[in-house]
Amino acid sequence: MKRRDFLKAAALTTTAMTVSPSPAFPETTKGAPTVIRYRPIGKTGLKMSDISFGAGKLSAASMVLRAVDSGINYFDTAPDYGQSEKSIGEAMPKLKRDKIIIASKFCNPLPYPGHLQSGTKTKDYVAAVEASLSRMQTDHLDFVIVHAIGEMSKDLEAEKKRLLAPEMLEAFALLKKAGKVRFLGTSSHGPNNLEELLMTAVKSGHYDMIQPSFNFMKFPKLPEVIKEAHKQGVGVIAMKTLAGAKEMNLNDSGTEFSHAAFKWVLKHPEVSGLIITMKTAADIELYLKASGAKFTAADQRVLDHYAALYTKEYCRTGCGQCEGFCPAGVEIATVLRYRMYFKDYGMEKRAMQSYASLSHNAAPCSGCDQPVCLTKCPFSLPVKEMLSDAHTSMLFTA
Questions:
Q1: Domain extent listing, the chain
Q2: Neighbours of 63 (CB within 10 A)
Q3: What is the pTM of this model?
Q4: Other beta carbons within 10 Å of 59
Q5: Interval 296-318: pLDDT, tens
Q6: 3-state secondary structure of 159
Q7: 386: three-class secondary structure by DSSP
Q8: What are phi and psi of 341, to 5 degrees?
């Protein structure tokens, strides 16, 4: 896609959003699915809807109000999720603040990723949160999250510094004392050192919640991490639960794939709940049908079917075993995650902006005659082909 065409389309979208009248806030259709179960978030004293709202694609306050009317009480947002925080702010006057839980991130309102890096000053952490509060028209966050730990660097120790940065911890203490934040969390979808970094957070004593990628095509050591979190009273909120969302219409004898994937995650008693991107009212109604439901043999068959179909197409979030072997230094797992956002999640704009920010994108891949990534992938994915496709799909051209 040419950059000028992309920017033109984005400008037209923004204009349309600006001049169009605000839609009426819809009420949930009578008889529509609602949240059935709420679970405690560690020892915070808070309980969240087992299926909760990932606001990465939120662009209208009406969606927030519909979700709340359906029983959803937990909203995950960030400054670098486009209009998300602003849309929550537009809904805020119609909400009872003490009835909802809002989590946002230590980051800036840049195209994703805008995470605050190690070395950020205390005042800048504070300013980032205060800007989020202003956009959302609220006086506090329930959780502030050190986001995407394991993404900024392959260096384990460097990411531990970001996780335990004295300036961040000082900022959190100041914000908590002022009543502007309540609890501290961290999230990770890798691709580097996901389990090690989350275990460090759990054992540090600083964190009240962790938010890992967690799905049925799972990481071997993650169950150990979530068990330890449960033992320590740290909440566990799962994300990336659809394992790439390659085929959302997969159905086996009436069993919906998304329901099977959610129920697999929620069958783990250590999990407080999950967040899933909800873009439409239909998403809310579909996903909430799995709230409070038990995982069954039929659900397992659907997941087995999905795994058989896509085992050689899904780059496992957080794997990263091919990282470090590419002679061109391509950020393989991150490129393929952005490709997933572009092709499977319907997040084309965010994916292209994020891809443009990479220092080592997949430009060298099409001409590579020694694709060592192919031999290092434990799942035998056609890595070179996928990387080349990612570059072609997401590159801005002049």
A1: 25-297, 332-394
A2: 25
A3: 0.81
A4: 16
A5: 999 999 999 888 888 777 777 66
A6: helix
A7: helix
A8: -60, -40
